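Suppose you are handed a protein chain with no further information: no name, no annotation, nothing but its sequence. What can you learn? This example shows the usual starting point.
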Amino acid sequence: MRIIGLDYGTKTVGVAVSDSLGITAQAVETITRKEENKLRQTLARIEALIDEYNVEEIVVGLPKNMNNTIGERAEACRDFADKLERRTGLPVIMWDERLTTVSADNVLKECGVRRENRKAVVDKIAAVFILQGYLDYKSNSGNIQNDI
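A reasonable first move is to predict its three-dimensional structure. Written in structure tokens, the prediction is:
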């Protein structure tokens, strides 16, 4: 069973997909859109990736505030997740993504990736961190419930 991980942002969506055993996450692409509220093409591209990789579950990063509260950005992610669930019919898990983009940016810096080149890949690397966190949790705890 493959799982897709998404880092939903105001203008981009980072995409990662698990291997067929659900052990590792790999970066796939960054989907870019011109306006934040224009989701039709973004959702269509995600559906195409779901078909291509035979995905059975979706994980969307939930950007909680550092004090564990839900802000405006997290609400937008929940709305996006609801649209995905209705459109695809697949289960959507919200996964705490605090600091994943910062971590992804730091990893890219450590690897010597120049600032202008980091922007193009940071979201899909953040999606890898989101998905890998979920996969690790799932493998360590057996069954998982969507309680975030």
